[in-house]
Design a protein that fits this description.
The structure is a homodimer of 380-residue chains. Chain A is α/β, with parallel strands linked by helices. The first copy, chain A, is built from 15 helices and 8 strands. In chain A, helix 7 runs antiparallel to helix 8, helix 8 crosses helix 12 and helix 10 crosses helix 14.
Amino acid sequence: MHNFEFCNPTQVIFGRGTVPRIGTIVAQSGCRKILLVAGGGSIRENGVYQAVMRSVSAFGVTVVEAWGVRPNPELELAVKLSQLAHEEGVDGILAVGGGSVIDTAKCIAAGVYSDDLWGFFEKKRVVEHALPVFVVLTISSSGSEMDSWAVLTCGEQRKKWSFSSPALYPRAAIIDPSVQTSLPWRQTVNGAVGVLSHVMATYLTGSFEETTLSLDEALMRTVIRMVDRLQADHADYGARANLAWAATLAMNGLSAAGIEESDWSARSIEEAVSALHPDVAHGAGMAVILPVWMEYLREDNPGQFQRWATQVWGTGAIEAGITAMKTAFQRWGAPTTLGDIGIGAAELRDIAFKALEEGPIGKLRTLTARDVVELLKTAL
Amino acid sequence: MHNFEFCNPTQVIFGRGTVPRIGTIVAQSGCRKILLVAGGGSIRENGVYQAVMRSVSAFGVTVVEAWGVRPNPELELAVKLSQLAHEEGVDGILAVGGGSVIDTAKCIAAGVYSDDLWGFFEKKRVVEHALPVFVVLTISSSGSEMDSWAVLTCGEQRKKWSFSSPALYPRAAIIDPSVQTSLPWRQTVNGAVGVLSHVMATYLTGSFEETTLSLDEALMRTVIRMVDRLQADHADYGARANLAWAATLAMNGLSAAGIEESDWSARSIEEAVSALHPDVAHGAGMAVILPVWMEYLREDNPGQFQRWATQVWGTGAIEAGITAMKTAFQRWGAPTTLGDIGIGAAELRDIAFKALEEGPIGKLRTLTARDVVELLKTAL
């Protein structure tokens, strides 16, 4: 077990009917005027927006609204909204949405104090101040509601980069799983695949971090079972709630405690895909890439891959474990070939170039551009 | 899954060689003069005391030393030390030890602002201010290093009570598992039994909180495996480290997330035992009480008891699971009968009276005094 630090100050308020508590939380934090960040109109349709507005208004908090965050959110919007937040003199940012909205909110929270937001991503500067970020979560996937990371794409250069700061942990996150009942099935599946990939990025590099590895296995098994339950009954609140909590725990630091380093290369490849194809959701891309990525790297930490096959899929062989995962993705209706997400052989070199553009990727093994092309070929 | 809140702001610094970081942590928190709270001399013998003193002195922090905290710590000492802390004008409390030391430190942190410390335990008042508490952990068991609880015995009335406040979360906890290598085996075992009992108090009342229950099972299995490994090799750092981290996670709120209510009746009975027999360590008492307590209550949530037998002990029957647990305790050298801890039939009524003195106990079932006597009889 490697040395580690763990500190996660986010206050989680979890459960059915908790959305109306946002007003109290924002007001108790001393905020009087907030920027509400949101995506499209789905939060109007499921009533979350109305509940939030009623709640914050009841405490006399003024709301400036910023709509239009899209999947794979862009730096340009975050810069524009940082200026708006500055001009309006807001004292808090409220994200109502999923990972894209929350990440944009975090960027605004830091960007309001800086005229070089991209500099944080380029590691030219670190976040010294940030406005408090509050979250009302509407889709469980990224774990951003309880982590210190933000991922954005710089539109000009199509670079999908991330940065992190202790100042970016949301002050509070309201997770009401019942609001996710109205999600399209596809989004539930994409979210769950994303969660599995988060855990696996760390788990598969592990070896003797028994406590953390056992927790990770518990999270993976739970995610798989809960998606199966939800497929049988979209309205199963228990399954929705357990999936939501597992998703949050998958990225809040616990799933990696004591593991030396994660291998985010599958994610880097997927981010190259979605930088070139912004219409491809992260989870959809990961459903295609994870199985072939594992197949390609299975000999680089074979004991751990074997453990994964046994503990998560109940099978003695790595091959059978990977097949079981792919079968689950297919059963859930996720794409499992590059063709399914509209990518052909001609693009593989561009994806590999993009994935490696900023330097080497991979911890299990350092992947070359040829490696990336070779492993993607098996997903065509 | 029931609604819940989770917020745990303690900064954990975990791993070999981390004790010398205490100076930086205390100084960065702005503390200039601290009260160091400790037990007997074991921290001199294993070098932890010296490392702590060197580290805080290097930052010019003044240290007032308070030694002599014993297992089942007493209110009287905490009151005395609160006065000392007040007179000396310290601005932080540093606990160097295990649960008893940390709990005493928390009481001092709150007691310095109050002349009625017992009032917190009696729920006559709530903690409004507390000095920051820092921890250098020397035995993993109570989980107090990352929770908001303090348990003390009021000597006069032999009442072992607890209180909690968000202000009591340690600011930071240094957990260096390697300092626990020199612990007597008995203390390692008592610690581990305590950890299992913490998880089970919540787990056994559960039903459909899949994420939390799976995490709990992972923690219980890890604890059992790590103790077995340590019994084979006391110097196995990996086993020590994973046991330590599991112990911390068992009480930091995660193991109970979404479970409506825990059943602390086994603990109440043990606390009655150790209030009457202050020489009986909490873990030793729990090793005796847990098996008979489970046997007595097995029909009150049979599905969950069954799940526990299967997932933790790999057996299909509740009976076999309880036997497996008892066998593990015996294998580790823990006491498993009341006789082993010096308690005879004549005391059972006193223990029952003490356990129920302040009101009913039990969530799986509300236990009467007769219930307590009956279940204890089977442990004679």
